[in-house]
Amino acid sequence: MVVIYIMYSVCFGCYLFAQSSRNVSGIVLDEDGNPIKGADVGTLSSNQFRSSVKTGADGRFSLYLSGSTSTIVVIYDDSATPGYDYLPAKVMVSGTAPDVVVNLVAACSVQFTGVIQFVETESLSQDVTYSVLKNGDVVFLSGLPLSYTKNKPAIQIPGWDPLTVIMPVGYTDIKISFSLKKYNPTGYIQNSFVIQIPVAEQGESLEYDLTAFMIPWNIEYVTDYLNETKTKLAELKESLFYLSKEAVMLSGSESKLEQSVLYYSGGDYTASYATLKNAFMTIRQVKQTLETLNSEAYRSIYLILGFLAISSITIGFILFESKALSLLSGLAFFSVSAGILYSIYPGTMLISFNNYLLGAGAAIVAGILLSMIVPRLIGFGAVRGDIRLMAVLVPIYTLAKRMMKRRRVRTFLTIFSVTLLTMSFVTLTSLSEEYGVSLNRVHLVKVDGRGIMITASPVTSDTDLLYVSEAEYNWLQELTGIKSIATKYTNLPQRRAIATLRSGEVAKQIFGVIGIDSAVEDNALDISKTLIEGTLPGEGEVAVTKIVLDSLSLNLGDRINLAGNSLVISGVFDDFVLGRMTELDGQGYLPVKEVNISSPEEPPHYIQVICEPEEVLVVDYRTAQKMNGVFQVRLNLGFESGVELESLAERIALERGFQATSASENAVTTYLLGAYLEGKGLPLIIPWTIAVLSVIVTMMNALHERRREINIMSSVGLNPSHIAGVFVSEATITGFVAGGIGYLFGLSLYRILALMGVAFEVEQKVSAMWSLASVGLAISAVLVGAAVALKNSVEITPSLTRKWDMPTRKMKDKPHEIVIPVKLNEAELDDFTQYVYTRLKAMEADPDYPTSSVKLRAEDHRQVITYIYKTINAGPGMMFTQNTLIIDPNSEKDYTVTLYITGETDWARRSGSVIRRLAIQWSDSKNQN
Prior knowledge:
five-stranded antiparallel beta sheet, alpha+beta, 27% strand
């Protein structure tokens, strides 16, 4: 039974297959009913047309359909005409139908050249669909939708370009749909437009440049974008923004837009699009600037109010001792400054007047509370010696205020100079981010060729790997005067060899592989000059260096194995010449590897170095494509002589976003599309330096004038850091007040310049960041000036004699050698010697740390004082040092003082401090006299 069942099943399946497999006959006619001879009739397999039979003279055909096939396709084109003569027909065949009749529809064809490109992005469309329309809908004729997409054609016909639009005669509308990737911001532009073609004859072929249709669309887009930005500019001008720079930029963009229209009218589509792209980028930059100004001004207004409140209260406390008068005057100053701010600052126009008053009130109340509470809270938990920090900072601040009031003229001049500095920074300087094509030109660079090198843009790519789409490749091929496009593949930097070539006991490690197109590589870069013998490698071949060939005893025609590929040696390079070979951008031609520069016992540290020529193999790019870890890194474009390379390189960077380097006999120039900093504030270093020097002079004069005050402060227990703090506090108050006033006046100057009709192109400083930067600039000027003055002053450092570094002994059995920081002339020699000798003798009566055996003697032209410095306390803490002070003439007819100490290092330091203190005290007494 089982055997009978199996036989029955097999027979029944054969019967069903015989029923579904059949011969289909039919006839192919034109629209007038005339038979068409030579038409291809076939079936579809995976959407691919499989031609089977041709129609005879009577238009008839007979086709065998196997299995469940129920669709036939008919194609006919007269080779005598330039275009397609009929639409392809797709016919469903039923199992019981009689002869099939296929009527082909007369057609013409349309070819599109150029590219779809949009000013908002540097990418080219990878997904373009051409659809034939009637009354706005896609036409469906002969069983097929007349919609043509390269990636997904309705039928794949051998020899037929899927982007060739075959359309019925009499139809005129073609819809072009596309998708473009945007880089900034990320996303996609998806859009379409409809073009109309004239009525064509059967078999006619029409050709249209897509650029001619895209440019008007881009012009319309840029025009709308410009009008939108101009409207925004007008709104912000009404809100008191000073926007002369942005207005000039928009005016220039409008001129570029008009120029683009003229180029388009004259048929120069390339120049038209490039000019339009430049106009769009400028408009986009202006619009982004306007949006940033609007948001920054709104966010910063309350911060600036708080800053003005603190500045006003500080001014009040400087002018008056009474807290009540100080607060009232501070309130008055704040009221005036807040009123000025409201009338000049753009951000105030973005909020209501009531909200501004509330913000101002909150700022001044917070400032008053801080001025009352902070001094009381500073010292909690902070102790320095036995004195709380509060007890030090508050007196320092009070002393600084009184000194500034007592010297009003000096204080006013300092504040005035720093105020002018801040005003110039706010009003007349700019540091802004631009977006466009930046260039870097290097003259007198010798490169091994002439052409344009395309690499990945560091703005849009994290690696050096280059990706060029088919559309972008086709676009490059259409550049004016281009002769060839030479690709280059190479591997990423390796720490280990990617291959090892062996011959007996000899081995050569390979760290780099280069893949080139030998047929065109020399058109831009003359690599053939590096060959000693043989030729550049073709597919399945490899070129090696002379050292590799000789060390492995190889010959031309021998085979080597590289990453599973058996390659024939086709050429031999000169190692030295290949190693000196450069790319068109002046960089090395050979790939790089990673080398560990650490010693074996240390953790590895890798750096990238260029491979040695003997570590590199050169293969055909098709061989390189099959290897793992090998990628495309550049394209070299070769051009006919006389072509202007720099303008083409700039166009490539502008329109496609690649990094493009042009190399000629005179210079190497790299063009890059992206953001870059445009600085207009470098002249600020001049007024900043002047302000710093002014503060230094002022501080030095103050130190000299107030030497008596400094000595008094020192005598009552203030150490040098406290005394210096007075001057630093003075400088900080000056910088803070001058910064606030300067920032406010700088903003006012915008309005004054606008009323006077002066149009400076500046970056308006209306953000919180710029306000803080302005104050920081002022404070930095006065602090640097104060620091330099204090560092060069000796009057305020008498008690710093303990804070000095003990010189290291050159040998342990030698005495410590300490140079005393004092220089004497011949007239001062005896006075200094007697002063030190007398003071040391007086110390013999010291109850804790006395001196003994103090002696003075003259040796030749120098004076020598010897003494013992000790402690009388017995026990392990006892100190004993032998000291020799030598006052020796030097070559400049002055005298230097050197102390030699024999004893333990710690006690030698204390003994050295004694002499240093005596020297400084002698200097101070001399200055006072």
